[in-house]
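User: Please predict structures.

Assistant: First:
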Amino acid sequence: MSTLSIRLPNSLHQHTKRLAEQEGISINQFISSAVAEKLSALDTQRYLKERAQRGKGVDIGAILAKIPYGEPDEQDRMVMESPSAIAISRAQKRPRKTGRKS
């Protein structure tokens, strides 16, 4: 375990303190978790960028051309609804406004 001294603006320190208290953890735990999340995000971004670079030379059309055409199995079929049917379905799920105040 290492000790690190950092300078934070007062507003950031107070916000961190408030959130740590709400989470029931110390400020040190909160900051450690925040740093771990940031490192994970940066590592993931770098990994995906490297994978994307390796995939640029792939001819996706040639790969897709190898897939034989056929109807999907019944359990794999998607039911496609028209945009108007979707809008009607959503409208039916919303509570109606009656104009009366309760």
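Second:
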Amino acid sequence: MLDTFPQTARTTANRHLDRVGYDAATARAVLDEAYHCHLGFVVDGEPRVLPTLHVRIGDTVYVHGSTGSRPLLAARSPAGLPVCLAVTLLDGLVLARSQFHHSANYRSVVVHGNARLVTDEAAKRDVLTALVEKVGRGRAAQTRPPNRRELAETAVLALPLAEVSVKARAGAPVDEPDDYALDNWAGVVPLRLAPGAPEPDAGVTAPTPDYLRPAASPWLVAEPMHGARVVLEPLELSHVDGLLGATADPQVWRWLAAPAPASAEDMRGYVIEALRERTRGTRVPWVQRDARTGEVAGTTSFYQVDEVNRSVTVGHTIIGCRWWGTGLNTEAKLLLLRRAFDGLGAVRVVWRTDLGNERSQAALERIGAQREGVLRASTRLPDGTLRDAVQYAMTAPDWPAAQHRLVALLHRSSIA
């Protein structure tokens, strides 16, 4: 038996009949993917539209609001409040050769019915928990539930999925036959709702929960790593103050393309940009902590991540002067190389450093990275000049000997 909603007078379309359907699974999927809806109703003969959040549980969609609002008060009647709920997901802009045939690709659901107030306290709590869980699975367990006063101030409406229609458009523009000869650009501009980098509130030190991180390839995950000298953990805005204190010496930034932050706000901007690159999938940033004291010592990243060719570049590395020569950065290299070669199956790891940064070049050669050449005028520095960069690389066959060399270096430094 097909799982469809019955067609009624209110759910029957008058035009574009090919775009309308009544498939229940499709309707549920659209309602679940969308975070917000628009609830239409009439109060005292006047139309109203309430934009609000919703959640679907089974074949009922729930919306919330204030107990003092007039529509929610009207929903107390035994018959409930006649409403029309609409959800739309915009998937693309359709640009045709003619203005008349411009359109949009979308998926939408319209629900008609009588919404009733949820009065049972346990049922209301279950709905509000489901609403919080829709933001992030696991969120309800990490937040304070509403107290009795807050619960009393919140109203929840229940709307059964009985009269439901689904409307959707997908694909290319459809022009008049004669218009296909026009020399006008035509096509689709895809649109996607995508989360940005989470930005913690002031004073928040807890790490960003996993459920707020977009699902990503293991190559794009800043997996926490622990050593005797250094701990690598995902970079967060809560590390701003620690990074500012650790890297305040201008020597730290001498060979870097980024200017030295002069304030916490500057460092915050630096970290925000790193997190944006993480969201775009172009960078995997870690913060480096001193494993013995817990202090923030610096940061480092994978970037130019090429999963197809199994290659990563290590860079954006900043280490406070206090930790130079302590083995902390050497052990960080060891952890990053283990992550790349053993964890991800990389075949190539790359580094680039300023041609004048002889200290960095010597460190790379000491661990067995091979110098491949000079990239002339490859990076613009804060003063506007272009730097020449030296490129080093290590391949999978080089890794066993390099790992042995790194372990020996760390052993010698611990004896010293």
